[in-house]
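Feature request, filed as a ticket because there's no other form

It would be nice if the structure record came with a short human-readable summary line next to the tokens. Right now we just get the raw output. Example of a typical job, pasted below so the devs can see what we mean:
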Amino acid sequence: MRRHDDSSRAASRVRAVVGAGTLLVLTPLLGGCSEAVTRGFLPRGATTSTERIENLWVWSWIAALVVGCIVWGLTIYCMVAFRRKKSDTGYPAQLRYNVPIEIFYTVVPILMVGVLFYYTARDEAALLDTSAKPDVRVNVVGKQWSWDFNYVDANTYVDGVQGNLNGKPGAEAALPTLVLPVHKRVEFILTTRDVIHSFWVPAFQQKLDMIPGRVNKFQVKTDREGTYKGKCAELCGAYHSQMLFNVKVVSQAEYDKFIADQKARGKVGQLANGLNREKIEPAQQTLIPTSQGSN
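Raw output as currently delivered:
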């Protein structure tokens, strides 16, 4: 009887500690104590797609945390409630099968993975949907170790060179800058001249690989003016860390002025965007449709 009482008291203490710990961890998430916590510490979004991404991210972490607390709680409970006592002799009763428990820990994980897969596939399909007509199309060209931006419909371009990041003030000004109008649907058409790169603007909370010989696309609708950072998210060689660019989301009037300035500087036409490893591979042009209605 004494052993049973000790085990019951120990189990009660463990449940109390686990319950308090779970509440302490989940309260900031569920209570929304700060904007950063409610979006899962992701950077503040600059497109209309970020709410969908943040919801998937945050609820995936909440589900993982709940499962983790249950597992940790059961582990600690077993360690405390069934620890060996000085009065114990021999081995405890050995059980070979427990069908209900085995069904539980087989079925429940399958259901969890199925739910996570469903919401991930649903959101991924929505984020990669390019059926809507874009207001602006930009062919982003990755190259070791910089970026070119072809404004397809405006028939102008920005040619980038690798930045000299020497730690001195103003070094970022030499990086290529992608200028976009606010509250417009932008389609990014991604190509590369050499190796695999990845186009990533953290404020867009979305990125996509650039594969040699292949055209990848995705769309965003900008909803906040500002200056943001962009980078390559795929290890692409010695100066991968310096393959950076700036992004400016501006008003329509500022965007129109930028396009006019580019043309006035003689940057009319489109830069080659196909695979080109100089003498290793012959240059080839990846065709981008000129009609806005084509996707």
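Something like this underneath would help us a lot:
The beta strands are 136-143, 146-151, 156-159, 177-181, 185-192, 197-201, 206-210, 216-221, 226-232, 244-250.
The chain has a mean pLDDT of 85.
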